[in-house]
């Protein structure tokens, strides 16, 4: 099974996931290929969540010729996917290939690019918009953001998700994660399971992941500078 438990996170080690991540990391990858790569990675990660973290159940079925027993994924119709705007939009597009029946929510959240990091290494977070479906005790929630850097954005989003209901399981899904972000999420939400394709080395002085992907939102949507500040996500 290409999922590997590590301290503070579970790493998706599927060869296609690693291959796609290498394309996303490459500074020579253009906007269209970067966005398509996020879609591909979301789809791969979705299938790996199903294979590695969801149970199956035996069911009786009738073929055109005889009765037999088959297996179906338990709870696949009780999934809520939360998009952290904006960089997660193509990432979630891929996830929906694995979970086409998922209910969806969005949270527009981003860190203040002009502010300094606080004493514990985080950033002040602005949440501009929240729209979440009802979340019940039988649901599995997947909160998707390609970058888990300081964890400031993700913990702010998880607070809003928890206010909407108490699911059976909650996953955070990131393409890459920094150790600092993993520790922040684990400290604030010890029952949340973090899935990522890579745990990177750490953060630079501005709180960006090294080696990372660069700014995933900018690379996917072709924006920089002021445009980024107005539509930021991640952190």
Written description of the protein model:
With 235 residues, the chain is of the alpha/beta class. 34% of the residues lie in helices and 31% in strands. The chain has helices at 15-25, 31-53, 88-98, 152-164, 179-188, 216-221, 225-230, and strands spanning 3-6, 9-12, 56-62, 67-73, 79-85, 103-111, 125-131, 140-144, 147-148, 169-177, 193-199, 202-203, 209-210. The strands form 3 sheets. Strands 1, 2, 5, 6, 7, 8, 9, 10 and 11 form a 9-stranded mixed beta sheet that branches. It has a two-stranded antiparallel sheet with strand order 3-4. It has a two-stranded antiparallel sheet with strand order 12-13. α1 packs antiparallel against α2 and α2 (31-53) crosses α3. Residues 226-233 have low confidence and may be disordered.
């Amino acid at each position: 099974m290409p999922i590997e438990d590590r301290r503070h996170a579970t790493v998706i080690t599927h060869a296609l996931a690693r291959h796609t991540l290498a394309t996303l990391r490459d500074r020579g990858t253009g906007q269209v290929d970067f966005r398509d790569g996020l879609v591909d990675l979301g789809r791969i990660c979705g299938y790996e969540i199903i294979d590695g973290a969801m149970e199956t159940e035996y069911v009786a079925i009738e073929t055109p010729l005889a009765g037999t027993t088959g297996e179906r994924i338990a709870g696949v119709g009780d999934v809520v996917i939360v998009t952290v705007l904006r960089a997660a939009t193509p990432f979630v597009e891929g996830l929906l290939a694995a979970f086409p029946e998922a209910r969806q929510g969005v949270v527009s959240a981003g860190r203040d690019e002009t502010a300094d990091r606080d004493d514990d290494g985080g950033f002040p977070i602005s949440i501009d918009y929240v729209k979440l479906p009802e979340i019940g005790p039988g649901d599995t929630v997947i909160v998707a953001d390609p970058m888990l850097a300081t964890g400031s954005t993700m913990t702010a989003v998880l607070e809003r998700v928890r206010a909407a209901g108490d699911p059976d399981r909650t996953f955070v899904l990131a393409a890459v994660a920094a150790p600092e972000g993993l520790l922040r999420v684990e400290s604030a939400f010890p029952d949340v399971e973090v899935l990522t394709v890579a745990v990177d080395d750490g953060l630079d002085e501005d709180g960006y992941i090294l080696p990372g992907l660069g700014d995933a939102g900018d690379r996917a949507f072709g924006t920089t500078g002021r445009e980024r500040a107005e539509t930021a996500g991640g952190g």
